[in-house]
Amino acid sequence: MKVNCNNFHALILIIGLILTIPGYTYSQNISFEAETGIFWFSQNDVRIPNEGGTKFDMTDITGRNAAPYYRFRLNIRLGDRHNIRALFAPLSKIGTGVFDEDLFFEDTLFHAGVPIDGIYQFNTYRLTYRYTFYDRKSWIIGAGVVALIRDAKVELIQPGRSDANTDLGFVPLLHIYAERKLGNNFSIILDGESLAAKQGRATDASLAVAYRFSDRWSTFAGYRVLEGGADVDEVYNFSWTNFGVAGIKLDF
């Protein structure tokens, strides 16, 4: 997997902004999570433009086979109740397919029977605030809000022709978190961000089992789903992405 330097610059900027929050001190609880695993598409329907474009399944180009992914999270707890998280979540898939009929995408007609190379990208940068309103015995429950920046692209390429649709925009989401502790070391964690509107919807939710094997280190594994899309004048795109999750967490 190649790492985009511009993406890391954006992540460093987000972290820097968090560390300048008034009242922040290094004595606050800070943790860093690195997540990896595999992802695969169950669905990825595209029609661009929405009026006049050809609807097609992007998985006919990129395939439904599993591919590796990674995510990074920085968590900061301010006091007993307030939590801030910065997330860097890149996602992309490339492939080649052939269609039985001509395909009109953006401003370009792609011919049937000729291989089409495709790139699907959905990178997100997120800043999440969560308030923990219940923390007793074996349960931790919280909720909050998310500021999401999406950097999305769909690109098709044939010999002698190519076209792409890019989308850089802001999306607000709601956040929920629930952790059920199972003894001293194990816990089950539900972590979700979601919102629906007339123009579309977005959900990113995971269910994982975590195991703490020292005071500073823990690991987790589970399943994540990323689902949603948009149905607006310029773009129709709805996808369902599955993730097999594994990761490690370091408490500073």
Task: Give a written overview of the molecule.
With 252 residues, the protein is mostly beta strands. It is 8% helix and 68% strand. The strands form two sheets. A ten-stranded antiparallel β-barrel has the order 1-3-4-8-9-10-11-12-13-14. A two-stranded antiparallel sheet has the order 6-7. The longest helix is centred in the N-terminal third of the chain and has 15 residues, at 5-19. The two termini are 28 Å apart. Mean pLDDT is 91; it is low at 1-5.
- CATH overall fold name: Lipocalin
**Total tally of structural domains:** 1
SSE order, as H and E? HEEHEEEEEEEEEEEE
Name the beta content range. over 45%
What composes the largest sheet?
10 strands, antiparallel, barrel
CATH class: Mainly Beta
Question: How much helix is in the residues?
Answer: under 10%
Look at the helices and sheets and give the structural class: mainly beta
Cα shape: elongated
The name of the CATH architecture is: Beta Barrel
CATH superfamily, please?
Answer: OMPT-like
* Uncertain stretches of 5 or more adjacent residues: 1-5
Number of helices: 2
Mean pLDDT: 91
Radius of gyration: 20 Å
Strand order of the largest sheet: 1-3-4-8-9-10-11-12-13-14
Distance from N terminus to C terminus (CA atoms, Å) equals: 28 Å
Total strands: the figure is 14
Keyword list:
single chain, 252 residues, mainly beta, Lipocalin, ten-stranded antiparallel beta barrel, two-stranded antiparallel sheet, 2 helices, 14 strands, 68% strand, disordered N terminus
In a nutshell, what does this entry contain?
8% of the residues lie in helices and 68% in strands. The chain has 252 residues and is mainly beta.
